[in-house]
Amino acid sequence: MSKEEFPSEKDLPQEDQEKQAKAAEADKAGVKDDKRVKDDKEEAAKPADVELDHLKAEVAALTQKNKDLEDKYLRSQAEIQNAQRRYSKERANLVKYESQRLGKDILSSVDNLERALQVKADDEASRQLKKGIEMTLEGLVRALKDNGIEEIKADGEKFDPTLHQAVQSVPAENDEQKGHVVQVLQKGYVYKDRVLRPAMVVVAQ
Asked: What H or E segment, with its residue span, contains residue 186?
């Protein structure tokens, strides 16, 4: 078909020309509308992103706060358990060593009775008195033993600084005697697993 067969825009009727113009304007308006919609969507997305960032920050802050509170709670629980263990241990020690003070006070009486028995009894009255002192001493020693207080072995034993207190030293008669107790000046006592009073001794060197 030749070019002459296609009518040009100016050859079209006025009505058709107006239709084409309107269609072109509509296309342009459509492009503008699409751009406007896209811009509106982008503008609407910006506040949403800001809100999302804010929520993320808030969640992170709450998570950290929860972690801190949990750490404080665990520390508090550990402190409470430690305090309970200390209390239980102190209570057990009080029960275990409840006779310690009484036993310590009685030891001086035991010492006095033992010194009284060293006095020579010359007559019947003195012998009877000595017998009474012996019975009293035996009763005290038995009561101490029943409550966990026993005499520390010292005479002839190897010197032990945890049990013995050396107040004097003398030359040893032989090598075997060196470092051993040769005389007990005052008896020592243990209360269960504690030294109530160390033995005062003389050690051979």
From this structure: strand 181-186
Token pair for residue 42? 């982008």
How is the beta sheet containing 181-186 ordered, strand by strand?
164-170, 199-204, 181-186
Indicate if the pLDDT at residue 37 is higher than 70: no
**pTM, full prediction:** 0.54
Identify any residues that bridge with 156 across adjacent strands, giving them in sequence order. none
Would you give the distance in Å from CA 51 to the centre of its chain? 45
What's the rounded Cα separation, in Å, for the pair 50 and 55? 9
- For β-strands 164-170 and 199-204, DSSP reports them as parallel
Whole-number percent of the chain with pLDDT over 90:
36
Residue 5 has pLDDT above 50, yes or no: no
Which amino acid, residue 32? Answer: K
User: How far is it, in rounded angstroms, from Cα 158 to Cα 189?
Assistant: 17
